[in-house]
Amino acid sequence: MTGTVLFFHFPPHLVREYLERFGITGNQCVLDPFCGIGTVPLECQKLGIPAVGFDAHPMAYFASKVKVDWQADPDLLIEHARTIAAYATKQLSADGIEDNPLFYNAYSPQPLKPLRTLSEEENALLLTNSISSLPLHKTLVFLHYLKQLRHELYYQYELLALAKALVTVIGNLHFGPEVGIGTIKTDAPVISPWLQYVQIMADDLRAVTMPPQAPATIFPGDTRQALEQLEPQSIDAVITSPPYPNEKDYIGEQASYFRLKIPTGKLLADIAVSLGYQLVSIDLFRTRFSSVTKEQLREEVVVLRWPASHIHAIPATGIQQGRLVEMDLFSQDEQNEEEIQAKVTPSAPRMAVCQVVCKSAGSG
């Protein structure tokens, strides 16, 4: 499902380019130990290449799992979604609320009942003002019918479409690159954007081959504790985006204050070389303008090779022995407000022995 839930992602074409560059075929298997919302396993599945993904974040795991599940009938999915939309729209109308009025600026709803809201515990999990009271009420009414009319074949797609609508249309979140609050909307449509995202999913399902030639497998949990789920010598390559610190919580103020350029690509390469890898190249993916430093920043891919002579040193993981193994580190400048926070110890899992795509601060 190509355009469905891309909250944060590196471009699918970058994955495809490096799969081609490494000569990965349907007879091999790709691992993404930090698969996020599933770009790598999804692109592999579309190309008929077996893939395995892990992610410890419940939402990221859910999104990845849904995106590689192509079993739903697209026409029946749309039919079921429209039924839910009809029930929710009827209930909102009965409450004196329009989901998508023609003129929002002139629309002044007069709800006939108190607006629904979240519990104190649930509210504490949200950024302040991340969603306004009226859109929240409409979302909770809609969610009630989504659960009440739940169908096991379609529920996961419909729930993921709601998640997409919440962060893009319904709520007040802003991404650029850190997550914050954008324009605070007093009202926003809920049902119509949700239906649009379900329609995108259905269109994607029509475009893919079912059943997939090489289904991807997604596992929940921390990769460091999950390697035993891989068969020995089953992985030929790794492409991933390892975790990197949230700019706002960790380094945003420091980086903004010091205005430091952090050559992440080179730093990552130096660390890898110190562990025994060979540096193949640091590829420029693209540049972009930083509104903070007023400079062009680099987004890079670091390509490394684990020498065949070192294969015996790899701990017992699923890594295929005796093959040329390269590591790609996709390092991304985020307005010079990211830094590497990594601990390299002898006992650390050697996930990087395969291809790894890592988002972090790149070189300035």
Structural class by SSE content: alpha/beta
CATH topological fold name of the largest domain: Rossmann fold
Radius of gyration: 23 Å
- How many domains? The number is 2
CATH-derived architecture of the largest domain: 3-Layer(aba) Sandwich
Mean pLDDT: 77
Largest sheet: 4 strands, parallel
Shape: globular
What distance separates the N and C termini?
A: 34 Å
What is the number of beta strands?
A: 9
Count of DSSP helices? 10
Poorly predicted sequence stretches spanning 5 or more consecutive residues = 1-8, 245-257, 312-364
Strand order of the largest sheet: 5-2-1-6
Range of strand content:
5-15%
CATH class of the largest domain: Alpha Beta
Helix content: 25-40%
Q: From the structure provided, what is the oligomeric state, counting identical versus distinct chains?
A: single chain
Give the ordered list of helices and strands.
Answer: HEHEHHHHHEEHEEHHEEE
Characterization of this structure:
This protein has helices at 12-21, 39-46, 58-67, 74-94, 120-123, 133-148, 155-170, 191-207, 247-258, 264-274, and strands at residues 30-32, 51-55, 173-175, 179-181, 217-220, 237-238, 278-289, 296-306, 325-332. It has 364 residues and is an alpha/beta fold. The protein folds into 2 domains: 12-58 and 212-353, Rossmann fold; 74-207, no CATH class. The strands form 3 sheets. Strands 5-2-1-6 form a 4-stranded parallel beta sheet. The two termini are 34 Å apart.
